Amino acid sequence: VRAVLAFLAVLLLSAPAQAESLVASLSTSRVAITSNYTGASIVVFGAIEKDAQTIARAGPYDIVVMVRGPRASLVVRQKEPLGPIWLNREQQRFFDIPLYLAALSSRPIEQVATDQLRARLKIGLRGVVYAPDVSVFRGGGADGPFREALLRLQKQERLWIESARGVTFLTASLFRSPVPIPAIAPPGNYEVDVILFSDNVMLARSQTNFELVKIGFEQQVAAVAREWSILYGLVVAAVALLFGWIASVIFRRD
Amino acid sequence: VQIYLPIAEIPVSVLLILAMGAAVGFISGLFGIGGGFLMTPLLIFLGIPPAIAVGTQQAQIAASSTTSALAAWRRDSIDLKLAGFLLGGGFTGTMLGVWFFSWMRRAGQLELVIVVSYVSLFTVIGGLMLKESVSEFWRSRRGVVRPVRRAGEHPAYLGLPMRMRFPRSKLYASVIPIVGLSMFIGFAGAVLGIGGGFILVPALLYLFRIPPAVVIGTSQFQILWTTLAATILHAVVNDAVDVVLALMLIGGGVFGAQFGSRAGRNLRAELFRFLLALLVLAVGLRFAIELVLRPAEPFSLQIVEIKP
């Protein structure tokens, strides 16, 4: 009984600082890839909930929405001249990198949270790229150009996006954030991480996810190609033969 | 109109792919070649992953060579005995090529292998073809007739052991250079996504002095079977054949090839060889430039493994 009372006391004492809570929801939890798929747009909706004890904050609320796609190991290579030709020489390997990454915020992310906090929470594109566990740090900052190159290349492909106006407040506590998914983003599980900040302090966090999946014909083709690859190869070969034969019948000259 | 490719996992424009298939098909019909050496780089340029471009292209070459092999069959211009030896070497080469391909892909050097092979193979063969066609042109201008081969006069490589008689090809030669050549072409074809017709045809013509009609028919027959084998092997070993892309390429290519071969009949033989040489050389130089010029973006990114 005493332990319970002590626990309740702790809860009550700490309650004011933790009073905000966050509710977030997605416009869809499953994006289907069909034959006319050319990318998609998901909308994250959310509300900041306060109760009676919530203290008034000095600064405004800030929301950061991080969307992380399927993860992969990557190699970034650098071409250097060797005699007259340019070859891939140096390389840096990265582990556990989301192939799709969106860092959307209601204000420039540098103003929302300090560098250390962003690095600890792995938010913002640089927070992900410069995380210590994604690659090997090399002496003299030799890994820096590779991390910057990863960031630049992924941004060029529009697979990584960062927007300081990606989250808009509809009312003081209601917000929405559209997340564009380009067509080349890989199928798989996408984690959505919504974080509430105020004055460089994380107040609440809510996580959800959606799936990008091939359905119907696309899904069946991919499954057959993976699981019955011999059959698949034979079918493609037979189709090639069939078309070649049809052409020779249609255009027969002799 | 965009269509999503289920294996390549990107959408492409249907009209663009059909038009590319038709354009490359036209050229391939014009010159009687597979056209893989033009299509594979184009596909890579469009953003199709190199592995899938190479694997899928094999299916397209198989389709176009079916048409020409059937025509050759009706004209009875295939030396089946010679084709048998070529196929033996070709299959072995293809298997080694697909295996080498997946090894290089894992090692992360596939792009370099493809570029370097394109440069070396195409500039060398394009250069040789150009030299041959230009010197032939000058000879014909000056009225010099090419000396006819006399009986008993053979290059040394035809006299290696295991000699055999190929009556259809008017050839009596060792099978070692024949199998070796076809092995090399099968290997290069599987790695580079080409049929290899533009290597096989001049080799059979100039190195083995086989009559042109038999050369064309036999090489088409050989290319048909090796590309079929390569399609299946790429699908099994590398998961690198996209059936939707293949269908579009085949569709465009088949029609383009018919118009090409019609146009080709109005082309003079020397001009024809000269143009083909220029084309091959141009592709080689295009890749050489890529290798020599300072790249705009020195960094490149490769996905090694996607987590499930």
- SSE sequence of chain B, one letter per element: EEHHHHHEEHHHHHE
Largest interface: A-B, 68 and 61 residues
Kindly state the percentage of residues in helix of chain B: over 70%
As laid out across the biggest beta sheet of chain B, the strand order is 1-2
Low-confidence stretches of chain A: none
Beta percentage of chain A is 35-45%
% residues in beta strands of chain B: 5-15%
Low-confidence stretches of chain B: none
The main pleated sheet of chain A reads as: 6 strands, mixed
User: Compute the gyration radius of chain A: what is it?
Assistant: 25 Å
Basic shape of chain B: globular
Give the structural class of chain A: alpha+beta
First and last CA, distance of chain A: 100 Å
Helix/sheet category of chain B:
mainly alpha
Mean pLDDT of chain B: 81
If you had to describe this structure to a student in words, what would you say it looks like?
The complex is a heterodimer of chains A (254) and B (308). By secondary structure, chain A is of the alpha+beta class. Chain A is built from seven helices and twelve strands. Chain A has helices at residues 2-14, 109-112, 115-121, 125-129, 144-156, 216-227, 229-250, and strands spanning 21-26, 30-33, 40-49, 61-68, 71-82, 85-98, 101-105, 160-163, 168-169, 174-181, 188-198, 201-214. In chain A, strands 2-12-11-4-7-8 form a six-stranded mixed beta sheet. In chain A, strands 1-3-10-9 form a four-stranded antiparallel beta sheet, with no helix packed on it. In chain A, α6 packs across α7 (229-250). Chain A is globular and about 90 Å long. Helix content of chain B is 70%, strand content 8%. The two termini of chain B are 31 Å apart. In chain B, β1 and β2 form a beta hairpin. Chain B has helices spanning 14-31, 36-45, 50-75, 80-107, 110-142, 175-192, 197-207, 212-238, 243-264, 269-292; strands at residues 2-5, 10-13, 163-166, 171-174, 299-306. Chain B is built from ten helices and five strands, in the order ββαααααββαααααβ. In chain B, α1 packs parallel to α9. β5 of chain A pairs antiparallel with β5 of chain B, so a sheet runs across the interface.
